[in-house]
User: Fold these one by one.
Assistant:
Number 1:
Amino acid sequence: MPKIVELLTDTFGKNAVLPRAQAGTRVASNWRQNENLDCLALLLPETTDEVSKMLQICHEHNQPVVPHGGLTGVVGGTVTRPDEIALSLERMNQVEEINVQNKTVTVQAGVVLQHLQQVLAENGLLFPLDLGAKGSCMIGGNISSNAGGLQALRYGVMRNLVLGLEVVLADGTVLSSMNKMVKNNAGYDLKHLFIGSEGTLGVVTRAVLKVEDLPVSRSTAFVGLNSFEKATQFLQYSMKHLKNELSSFELLWQDYYSLMTSPPSPFSPVLPQTYPFYVLMETRGQDAGDGAVFETFLENALTSGLIDDASIAQTQQELDWFWGIRENVELIFSVHQPVFLFDVSLAISDMEAYIEKIKTDLQNIWADLHFYAFGHMGDGNLHLFVSCGHADHSTRHQVEDIVYQPLRQIGGSITGEHGIGLEKKAWLHLSRTAEEIQLMQTLKKALDPKGILNPGKIFLLTSL
Ligand code: ZN
């Protein structure tokens, strides 16, 4: 057994330190169930104090550590090499305090998102972060990756939902800032350094999160539109007229809608497959009469020609059907292999031309290309799935080049949700200036001078 693993085992016990063989029986990622974890050891702390002492020891021994949450990331942010130690927060899974008056919840980093949603719902409260991986992803990972998801349009991304944060730095220092206030201008707001830093600056151990009243109404509709311009106008109209209750506005291009509503998909079409664009929209409110208001709203939009077709979910079954069409993205992987996925961000006014351009450029190279676009239109954030029959390194690079290069000119971002991890390092410079990247590296060096925290992630070349 390596000396460092021996030392950690002597200090924390066999229960908290799984050696390579034992760690290797677990999966490396939720998406790749056939790939096992291959690391020096897996640490399973139960308290912040343990995380601190573990990092202290690793720091002293120059031992690289990769923080692990629910392992649902898609850019390789938790990939752990054989000489690295994984540190999972899964045992720190307590919801510590629900403060109804203050509308906050205090949690440990290993709480699973869906569990938190359920516990809060039992108390009449809502934690509004919502994403496909909610059954496995953990709050610590949501914070480290600044998760976005399906309701960011109304409630913001994770960064907007964190009031206080406790982080353990690379050398074991505990930085506790469990602030419960919305306003605190006492110097730098350090929590934002760690939110979205993908575990490269510190290990998130606890957080104070903002919660909302649990909505009593939920109205959901599929809308068919004959042009992108109409989708844009309809988004503006919806934001203006739905009393700030609009929580989701998801745009689906026709190819994606048709794929998701044709066999082997289990879902039949809600509306005919003939529209070039579809919107899946949802409002959540506090008034039992919200459903009737929503119906009138859509009727008016139809009568005035703002939209071309619409259907409202009337039952829970229909609700699941509507959302299934949007969310059942795994279907793509069973129909096409291999698939490259993207999560670009750009101004709504640039979306249509951008999608047309990259689709044409890709088709010019791969005539039998499969291309699907959909996403969070209201947030300016789209998911793209590209399958061109190959997955070798140079094909991947060529596809990425076509998808990412135009974003530089229009001021978009190569990632709106997934982060950089390992997979997008080569393209970071398209979305950040040289000065920004330099400052990021200066911060990394200041907080983790030995470079032991999640090494090799985010930056292509590091000056460390
Ligand atoms: Zn998304």
Number 2:
Amino acid sequence: MNHEQPSDPYALAQEAAGVLADRTGVERHDLALVLGSGWLPAVDALGEVTAEIATTDLPGFTAAAVAGHSGRIRSLRVGDPSTGQSKHVLAFLSRTHYYEGRGVAAVVHGVRTAAAAGCSTVVLTNGCGGLKEGWTPGTPVLISDHINLTGRSPIVGPTFVDLTDLYSGRLRALCREVDPTLDEGVYVQFPGPHYETPAEIGMARAIGGHLVGMSTTLEAIAAREAGMEVLGISLVTNLAAGISGEPLNHEEVLDAGRAAASRMGELLGRIVPRI
Ligand code: 8IG
């Protein structure tokens, strides 16, 4: 396996966007959607599928590694084309995780490709552990901010990107118009792939975290660097380690996703056309 980073990840993303336009027949996409654990069933009713390709057909992508993540990119038409309100949505049915060891550039290549393909907005979804008892498995939570515990950045060199309002207040407000019951919280990215110890969950709480996961923050930073507006939505699929007293397992995550699929699908279906 080649762990080398390409010398110019932005050029690689441009190249991938060119092949994407050819393969989908869509010159420019408007919005990118990255699906996390448990979110795949939610995208099926989102809109008319105009093309679906394997990520590995595009330069710079490697095969998906996690069960429940399929390595495909779907191009969808969401909304009614006759009203002029329809959007070309680029849905990544899988993502590359930091814990795969392919490097940070590989983690954010999808987001950079989406930006190069014309997307001005990215919706980053994930499955995660929740620190509030009231967030039972299947609860969607808007990400208000993050704490990146990977200690890494997708940016190399002296580009000092402002992250003050990384997770768009405008888009969160729009989500709340669609569903006023949506709560929000601070997402803490641990490197993974192991889940946390109860003591680490105590630390996450002490530093201001409400959600714990293994994705999203590096992609959000790359998206901001590329000038995109970012919406983050976590699906709480399990209570964080030590809270329920039960051990954590990946099957539970997939089950919670399947159970919440229709609510998440409806949520995305109502939000995406309004962005
Ligand atoms: I789904 O409890 C899912 N992903 N780090 N902790 C971390 N990642 C997760 C968890 C969790 N649940």
